[in-house]
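INFO  loader      accepted 1 record
INFO  loader      residues=179
INFO  predictor   begin
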Amino acid sequence: RLVDVSGLPEALFDDQEAAPVEPVLLARLEAAPPGAVVPVDFGQRRVASAAARRILSRPLRRIVSGELADRYLVLMALGSAWYNVQVMLRDEGLTVVERPVDGSPPRLMGRVDPAVDETYRYLARERTATAADLQREFGQTPAAVGNRLTRLVELGLARRYAREPVPGGGRKYLYAAVV
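INFO  predictor   done
INFO  writer      dumping tokens
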């Protein structure tokens, strides 16, 4: 289910104004089944960095720590709040997926490593991929591609959702970007 801020003022300037959203968001993430994407709709509100920190910092940290593993956040309808949310995420060392209002493809916000961004954009474009697919695309070693995929999963930006046996032994995983 969508988490929106429609009951709040048109502008959220400090953490006290944003305080009612954080427990709702955490409750939705905790109740969500594994693999769920919880969209956060900012409804085109003006949101200061302090308010964005109150709403997003703890949930994103719990996702990255593994406490809310296999649950994902996607930000929507940021509008004029985009810059302040971006600054807060970058300052806090956090990364999240944004669905732009203009209908363009999802993108990463916050502190974004170039390799993570490149891998995310590939997964978002292809819908699903294996490590072998990424090896062909980027011309990297299996270890380097594995590191890219592991990092995306740890950050809550992609999910490993299927495992298939490989002829001759072993297994391969299918990955998908959080969109």
